[in-house]
Amino acid sequence: MTLDMKVLSYIAVMAGVTYLIRMLPFTLFRREITSPFFKSFLYYVPYAVLAAMTIPAIFYSTGSVMTAAVGALVAFVLAWFNQPLIVVALSASAAALLAGFIF
């Protein structure tokens, strides 16, 4: 099997899996979901997945956990006070950079 065929087969498998993940809920749940528990569970799934992907990336993004923690703390505080996303991101990056110079 050549490299091109291998790459094409990988793409085909990924496309199939992605299609199945998106298609299955539409075929399994034909009626509107009325369970308050299940509705609240589905409401928080995107936030939980985003947090599960973002939090580890924050702490492994710099060479030191301490500088990453300083940046994360600044980001959490600014987000708590409803600052715009660009302000939060730039301030957290600057705080991590400054913490790297200090530590």
Descriptive notes:
This protein is mostly helical and 103 residues long. Helix 3 packs antiparallel against helix 4. The model has no long low-confidence stretch (mean pLDDT 92). It has two domains: 30 residues; 67 residues, no CATH class. The radius of gyration is 21 Å and the shape is flat.
Largest sheet: none
What's the pLDDT, averaged over the residues?
92
Order of helices and strands: HHHH
- The percentage helix is over 70%
Strand content is under 5%
* Number of discrete helical segments: 4
Give me the count of strands. Answer: 0
Distance between the termini: 52 Å
For the CA atoms, what is the radius of gyration? 21 Å
What class, by secondary structure content?
Answer: mainly alpha
Low-confidence stretches: none
Number of domains: 2
Shape: flat
In short:
With 103 residues, the protein is mainly α.
Helices and strands in order, then pairings?
Layout: H1 3-28, H2 36-60, H3 65-80, H4 85-102
Characteristics:
single chain; mainly alpha; 4 helices; flat; 2 domains; 103 residues
